[in-house]
Amino acid sequence: MKKTVNTFKEAKLKGEKVTMLTAYDYSTAKLEEEAGIDSILVGDSLGNVILGYEDTVSVTVEDMIHHCAAVARGAKNTLIVCDMPFMSYQSSTYDAVVNAGRLMKEGRANAVKLEGGKNIQDAIKHITESGIPVVGHLGLTPQSVNAFGGYKAQGKSLDSAKKLIEDAYAVQEAGAFALTLECVPAQLATLITKNLKLTTIGIGAGNGCDGQVLVYADMLAMFSDYRPKFVKNFANVGEVMKSGFAGYINDVKNASYPSAEHTYAIDPDILEKLKKEFN
Ligand code: KIV
């Protein structure tokens, strides 16, 4: 059965955790669905992990549509959340609704995710009123890396913690069904989780959240440019891939690959005729 926003709502009521991982392509999405994931985030971390940018700022709506559509083809029974990239919702509520609509119609997303609180409350309201489910994102919001002056934990001082709580309420009031909390103190994330009706999804926010999300390339040790404190390696796929690539290079160089089992044969009579004609 297809997992939907109701899967999140029911899990919160039952006190069950929800799981989310990023994916950016068909095959990874398919594997995650087969493993039983509740939701896939086509994150704009696409910019770092897949496209090799330094940050998420350069990612476009077209990039997101292209990758989201591939993920949606691979995971038809999973709730697909697609990030709205930088400047696709900040400029006006009109842009926000049009771009969210494109991510749904062309990218086949089931929901969209936006970074911010009170400052984007109108955008969230207009998008949800258009029938598009929204996930908020507070704490460390990577699209604002230039404003933050780097990737740092948020909500550690009294003022910033209070602002974060106010922003969380603003996101909920605007109609979001879930909220990503990135790099915030665990106790603060737990307080927000206990007081709000929406589903909180933590990343670097402790285990008091209603669910967790990780960038799949981080948790499989495939992405090595940097490694945030909150990442746990659940498998060392990066090393497995490197060793597979090295094995291939070795076997091709010493001509042991392809061997007979990987090779197509031809009828010996036909071969004889060919040899007579072309030798
Ligand atoms: O883009 C992304 O992958 C995200 C997660 C870090 C939550 O927003």
Write down the overall mean pLDDT: 97
Q: Helix/strand/pairing class, anyone? A: alpha/beta
Q: Widest sheet: strand order?
A: 1-2-3-4-5-6-7-8
Number of helices: 12
N-to-C CA distance: 62 Å
Please name the defining characteristics of this protein.
279 residues, alpha/beta, 44% helix, elongated, binds 3-methyl-2-oxobutanoic acid
Descriptive report:
- With 279 residues, the protein is α/β, with parallel strands linked by helices.
- The protein is 44% helix and 13% strand.
- It is built from twelve helices and eight strands.
- An eight-stranded parallel barrel has the order 1-2-3-4-5-6-7-8, surrounded by seven helices.
- α5 links the parallel β3 and β4.
- It is elongated, with a radius of gyration of 23 Å.
- 43% of the residues are buried.
- The mean pLDDT is 97.
Strand-helix topology:
Elements: H1 5-14, E1 18-22, H2 26-35, E2 39-42, H3 46-49, H4 61-74, E3 79-83, H5 93-105, E4 111-113, H6 121-129, E5 134-139, H7 145-148, H8 158-174, E6 178-182, H9 186-195, E7 199-203, E8 211-214, H10 216-219, H11 237-253, H12 268-278
Parallel strand pairs: 1-2, 1-8, 2-3, 3-4, 4-5, 5-6, 6-7, 7-8
Helix pairs in contact: 2-4, 4-5, 5-6, 6-8
The structure holds 3-methyl-2-oxobutanoic acid (KIV).
